[in-house]
Batch of 2 targets.
Target 1
Amino acid sequence: MEEKAQATTFYFTNFPEEVHPQELKHRFSRFGEIVDFFIPSKTNKFGKQFGFVRFRGVEDAELIEAKMKEV
């Protein structure tokens, strides 16, 4: 039986409202294989949009987190 690769979820916020979700997903795809990407229609408690991106097989979550700040 094939072992399932673990997925790591990242929360992101503070992105321009005019950016299309597919553009964000494309930018995040350079960090690894995306298994899920979601931006809810509601905002966080600070009134900002937010979202979640899940990557398969992340070996260094801190490195990806640091690189995501450049997006």
Note: The longest helix spans residues 21-28.
Target 2
Amino acid sequence: MDGPEAPAPARPVTPRVVLVVGGVVIGVVVVLVVVAISAWGGDSDGGEPATTSFPAVDHDPDAAEALVVAWERWRTATFVSTG
């Protein structure tokens, strides 16, 4: 052989490779769009602090005690079949 060898034939691209590469590209584009929208939108609430007082968060000692009593009553109850 006097000249350079011929290159090996290229492997065919499988649909799985196209799907994976396409998914990664779409994912990166979506992330970039979300970041751009959030950076462009800015702070739309005027800089007010978020509301953190919800009825489920505020502690009510009487309601907590009633819940514990009801839970213990249910937990230690004996269930008897009527049939």
Note: The two ends are 95 Å apart (CA to CA).
